[in-house]
Design brief:
Blueprint lengths: L3 E3 L5 H14 L8 E6 L4 E5 L7 H6 L8 H20 L12 E4 L2 E4 L24 H4 L10 H16 L9 H10 L13 H8 L1
Antiparallel strand pairs: 1-3, 2-3, 4-5
Length: 206
């Protein structure tokens, strides 16, 4: 029951970096735990703990109308934030927080998939991560501008929005369209009959 993750030849160094990051975190309450690793000439095999609850995306898509009630969403947000706090305190920026990389272990959220993570917290210039979850400063990184661990907080906000409304705030037919919306469009709370507290709306706007 333990999933095995591998990367194609050519990214062995990236996989070994991911292993090093996982070793820094093992064990912590809200991050995925490393069980073992092995490698051959072509692959690095990363063996992690089994999360029986699947991904947060699976939880969301199996919920009525594809969104969660606010109480559940806030609990998950708190757990992800605790995991993110652990990462940052260990000198790690995730850079690809999204619903597919949050797993449920015994009903609690844990952050996984550190393939895009870095230990450079203060001056990164790589434009990486899932486009709909990228912070504005990450999109601008191709202009050699730098960004910091605060970019992970933007992704956390996108996740909270998606849990509450069942959709992302910035979507498009292409990466370029998503980038334009993130950089130019003002964030808006969706016009919906879903009852959301004033406190949740205030947090989203921040």
């Amino acid at each position: 029951n333990i999933p095995i993750k591998y990367r194609r030849k050519g990214s062995v160094n990236g996989s070994e970096k991911e292993v090093d990051i996982l070793k820094r975190l093992d064990p912590t309450p809200h991050t995925l735990s490393l069980v073992d690793t092995t490698k051959d000439k072509k692959y690095v095999y990363i063996i992690t703990e089994y999360c029986e609850g699947g991904t947060l995306k699976k939880i969301l898509t199996s919920s009525p109308d594809n969104f969660l009630d606010e109480k559940t969403a806030v609990r998950y947000l708190y757990e992800i934030a605790k995991g993110l706090g652990t990462l940052h305190s260990c000198g790690i920026m995730h850079r690809d927080l999204n619903l597919d990389n949050i797993f449920l272990r015994k009903g609690c959220c844990v952050i996984g998939d550190f393939g895009s993570a870095t230990t450079n917290l203060n001056s990164d210039t790589a434009c990486v991560g899932t486009p709909e979850y990228r912070a504005p400063e990450v999109f601008l990184a191709h202009s050699k501008r730098t960004y910091s661990k605060q970019a992970d907080l933007w992704s956390l906000g996108i996740i909270f929005h998606e849990m509450l409304f069942g959709k992302k705030p910035y979507e498009g037919e292409s990466i370029q369209e998503v980038e334009r919306k993130v950089l130019e469009d003002e964030y808006e709370i969706p016009d919906t009959p879903i009852k959301i507290s004033k406190e949740a709306k205030d947090l989203l706007k921040k």
